[in-house]
Design a protein that fits this description.
alpha/beta; single chain; globular; 46% helix; Rossmann fold; six-stranded parallel beta sheet; 375 residues; seven-stranded parallel beta sheet
C-alpha cells in the first residue's frame, strides 16, 4: 500500500499530516497489515527530521502562491505552479499511490491536480471553518472530505463530507504534569498563563503582553512562546520592563516550545492565550480555558470564524484585534479566574469540543480508500 500526503506552507498543514501518519502506522500494526509506504510531496519538507523519524519519503514539488492582493509575484508564480504541475505529474505517476491525502494550502494544488488527472482517489481534510482556495477546489474532485468544524461542511458535497475534528499529534495531544514545576522553574500555587502566537509567533500578541507584563506577573506566571524571529527583541524589552519588579522570574519566554516543553507547559497552564488556528484543537484536548485573538485579515476571515465556533462550546472567550488593549485583556483574564464555577464550565466546554479520535478516524478512511483502490 502506498499513501501520498500533500499540503504546504505552515505547521497547520504539516503537523496534522504527521498525526494521521502516526495513526495509520498504529492501525497497520494492530491489524497486522504490511506497513504502508508513505510519501510527502510539497514545495518544502517543513521538518526533514520529523519526516525521517516517521519514515516518510519527501520529494519536492514547486508551487506558486495566489495572493489576494496585487503583486508582480502573482504573475511569476503562475509559471512556478505550471512547472510544479509537470513535476507533480511525473512524481505521482512514478509513485502511483493508492490514495492521496491533502491538507490544503497552495503547496497541495499541483499534487492534487496530478492525482485527479491520473485517477487516484483523493481524501481532503479542511482545518478551518471556511475552506481555503486549494481545498475549495480539491473538494470538487475528492472522494472523501473531512472537516474540523461542522460549519465547513456546507461548502462541500454533503455525500462526501464528515465532521471529524482536526488530527493532533500524540506528542502534544496529552499534557504532562509530572516534572513540569522543575523543568519550567515554576512556583507553587501561582496560576500559569501560556501564550501561543503560532509557530512563527505573533508580534501583536507579543507587544500586548510586554505592555501588560508588570501587572500580569503580580498574579500569574507567564510562559510565552514568542516565535524565533521575535525572541531577542521580546526578551530584551521584557528585561527592561521588569527591571524593578520583584516578580520578574515569573516571566518565562521561549523562542519555540518543542514537544516536551509544550507538554510540560500545557500541563502547567491554567489559561491559554492564543491565535485561532489549528492550535484550538490542541487546547481543547488539554481541557484548558483560553482567550482567542483571531487574525483580522485571515483568508475568508477563517480565524475569526474558528474562534467563535470554538467559543460557542464555552471553552474560550474571544477578543478581536480591533478591541484589543491591555485593559480589556486584564479584565478578561481576571473575569475568568474570578469565579470557579465559570472557570470549571470553560474546562468542560473545552473537553466537550475535543475530538481525540480525529486522527484515527481519518486514518481509517484513508486506509479503506487505499484498499478499495488496490482491488
Amino acid at each position: 500500500m502506498k499513501i501520498l500526503f500533500t499540503g504546504g506552507g505552515t505547521g497547520g498543514h504539516f503537523y496534522p499530516i504527521i498525526a494521521v501518519t502516526e495513526a495509520i502506522k498504529s492501525h497497520a500494526s494492530k491489524n497486522k497489515l504490511i506497513p504502508p509506504d508513505l510519501y510527502f510531496l510539497a514545495p518544502d519538507p517543513y521538518s526533514s527530521k520529523i519526516l525521517f523519524d516517521n519514515q516518510i519519503k519527501y520529494y519536492q514539488v514547486p508551487a506558486g502562491k495566489r495572493r489576494t492582493y496585487s503583486s508582480a509575484a502573482n504573475f511569476f508564480d503562475l509559471f512556478k505552479t505550471g512547472f510544479g504541475i509537470m513535476i507533480a505529474l511525473w512524481r505521482v505517476f512514478w509513485i502511483y499511490p493508492d490514495v492521496i491525502f491533502s491538507k490544503g494550502g497552495y503547496g497541495s494544488f499541483p499534487v492534487v491536480l496530478a492525482g485527479h488527472i491520473l485517477g487516484i482517489p483523493i481524501v481532503v481534510h479542511e482545518s478551518d471553518s471556511v475552506p481555503g482556495r486549494a481545498n475549495a477546489w480539491a473538494g470538487k474532485h475528492a472522494d472523501k472530505i473531512a472537516v474540523s468544524y461542522p460549519d465547513a461542511a456546507k461548502f462541500f458535497d454533503e455525500k462526501k463530507v464528515a465532521w471529524t475534528g482536526s488530527p493532533v499529534r500524540r506528542e502534544v495531544a496529552f499534557i504532562t504534569k509530572e516534572g513540569a514545576k522543575n523543568f519550567l522553574n515554576l512556583e507553587d500555587d501561582i496560576p500559569v498563563i501560556l501564550i501561543l502566537g503560532g509557530s512563527q509567533g505573533a508580534k501583536l500578541i507579543n507587544d500586548l503582553i510586554i505592555d501588560v507584563l508588570p501587572q500580569l506577573v503580580e498574579k500569574f506566571q507567564i510562559i510565552h512562546q514568542t516565535g524565533k524571529a521575535n525572541f531577542k527583541e521580546v526578551k530584551e524589552t521584557a528585561d527592561m520592563v521588569l527591571n524593578m519588579s520583584q516578580y520578574a522570574k515569573r516571566y518565562k519566554p521561549f523562542d519555540y516550545l518543542d514537544d516536551l516543553a509544550m507538554r510540560m507547559s500545557s500541563g502547567s497552564a491554567s489559561l491559554v492565550i492564543s491565535r485561532a488556528g489549528s492550535t484550538i484543537f490542541e487546547i481543547a484536548l488539554w481541557g484548558v480555558p483560553s482567550i482567542l485573538i483571531p487574525i483580522t485579515d485571515s483568508n475568508g476571515d477563517h480565524q475569526r470564524k474558528n474562534a467563535y465556533n470554538y467559543a460557542r462550546s464555552g471553552g474560550a472567550t474571544v477578543i478581536e484585534e480591533l478591541n484589543l488593549n491591555k485593559n480589556i485583556l486584564m479584565e478578561e483574564i481576571e473575569r475568568i479566574f474570578a469565579s470557579s464555577d465559570f472557570y470549571n464550565k470553560m474546562v468542560e466546554g473545552a473537553k466537550s469540543f475535543a475530538k481525540p479520535e480525529a486522527a484515527n478516524t481519518i486514518a481509517q478512511e484513508i486506509i479503506n480508500t487505499a484498499l478499495e483502490h488496490e482491488k
